[in-house]
């Protein structure tokens, strides 16, 4: 199976209080078509830093990231955002939905940004139903709970039928049952060939994932699955 994500010897150095420190060191990781990969690690260990590099929102200090066979290093911001929109379902940490659009329009937005023409009949509504929000389609985000907003972000990430899903704690602030449903959606998509890279603390995701990586103080290691 082809790799959808390839990260080779990637590092990210930040400055803090005038002193440099490495948030990520020499990280190497791959996610192939049809693979569900989970990334675990304590708060501040560098997980979001790695994900942001993978989706082309952050430049690494060293090393190389390749997304859907395209090296990110040579791309302009515009080209990176085009690639992300076309191929990646990114669920950022936090809500990140637009408060001036209804829930339904938030989910639809990536389709129109990708210039893909008319939306397939009812697709956004169907995705909202899959994440249990069918009844809230016409509400504005200000009327939603934290967990409902997370689910809007998940539905939105699936709108353009991404080749690869990169999700940063998508199940945080969800109850166990809803979290399981979200993870099951990702698992089903992986079984149909989508690559999934997910940061989580849920043991259920660990159980259904094909491979696991641990992040500790910027150091990434693959865990042998028991
Ligand atoms: N722009 C920045 N400038 C300086 N330091 C940063 C910056 N962004 C992140 N960091 C630091 O880099 C480290 C890794 O941050 P990161 O967001 O990747 O952690 P994380 O594993 O995603 O944590 P969490 O589980 O809390 O989301 C942290 O110590 C953080 O404070
Ligand atoms: Mg994070």
Automatic annotation (TrEMBL):
ABC transporter domain residues: 5-226
Xref: SUPFAM superfamilies: P-loop containing nucleoside triphosphate hydrolases
InterPro entries named among the record's database cross-references: AAA+_ATPase, ABC_transporter-like_ATP-bd, ABC_transporter-like_CS, ABC_transpr_LolD-like, MacB-like_ATP-bd, P-loop_NTPase
Annotated keywords: ATP-binding, Cell membrane, Membrane, Nucleotide-binding, Transport
A Pfam family this chain is assigned to: ABC_tran
GO molecular function annotation: ATP binding
CDD domains: ABC_MJ0796_LolCDE_FtsE (cd03255)
PANTHER family referenced in this protein's UniProt entry, alphabetically: ABC TRANSPORTER ATP-BINDING PROTEIN, IMPORT ATP-BINDING PROTEIN
Protein name, entry field: ABC transporter ATP-binding protein
Organism: Sutterella massiliensis
